[in-house]
Amino acid sequence: MNTAAKGNFLEDSVFNIIQYLLQNDRLKLSPTQTKLFRKKSYPSRKQNINVVATDISIELWPPQAANYSTLWVCVYKNYDHVLPLSDLEDFKIKLNQIGGNIKGVIASGNALQYEALDFARTNGIGVIRILPNDRVRWVIEKSNMASDGREEKANAREITTGLTSQNYTGQNHNLYAFYDGYTFDNLNGFLSRMLK
Questions:
Q1: Whole-model pTM above 0.90?
Q2: How large is the C-alpha radius of gyration of the chain?
Q3: Could you tell me where the beta strands, DSSP code E, fall in 21-140?
Q4: Which residues pair with 137 in a beta bridge?
Q5: For residue 115, what are the domain limits?
Q6: pLDDT digits (tens, 9 = 90+) for 8-20
Q7: What residues contact residue 102 under an 8 Å CB cut-off, 6+ apart?
């Protein structure tokens, strides 16, 4: 699969999951106050001629409002190499150009430089890494279950390693995410935290 096809697959996967979560009220957001978009561009506050393109965006609209109150923006970076710090720095500039109450996420199929994760941490940017199926060992063990029968969550160290280790192979998890000091192994928890 070439880089463009991998990126499209990643984007489609995340979009479909978000759409499902919104349609099935899993994020506790009113469908009448939430708008989900693909490939929408937003004007730059600083330069009227500039537009900032997004891969996925969610606008949260209060009742009878003339504009959205919160904008969640996701862009994809699917390289054959580690996601560099410079990509997060450029993304932060784009978020600042849009302005307002904006929350940004970079999703990748590959690892981030540790410095890029640190930059995300200190600048309020969310990061998601989705491993391809051939990079995950699916093991069903009794020890993977919590006492109430739910699947046990990945710990913070495992998630940080999953985000930053180039050759990482996940065990029972294919998604690793970070936002606002919290680590996540599922998109539902990640989005719930970001959109609250």
A1: no
A2: 17
A3: 34-38, 41-43, 51-53, 56-60, 70-77, 102-108, 126-130, 136-137
A4: 171
A5: 3-194
A6: 777 888 899 999 9
A7: 70, 71, 72, 73, 95
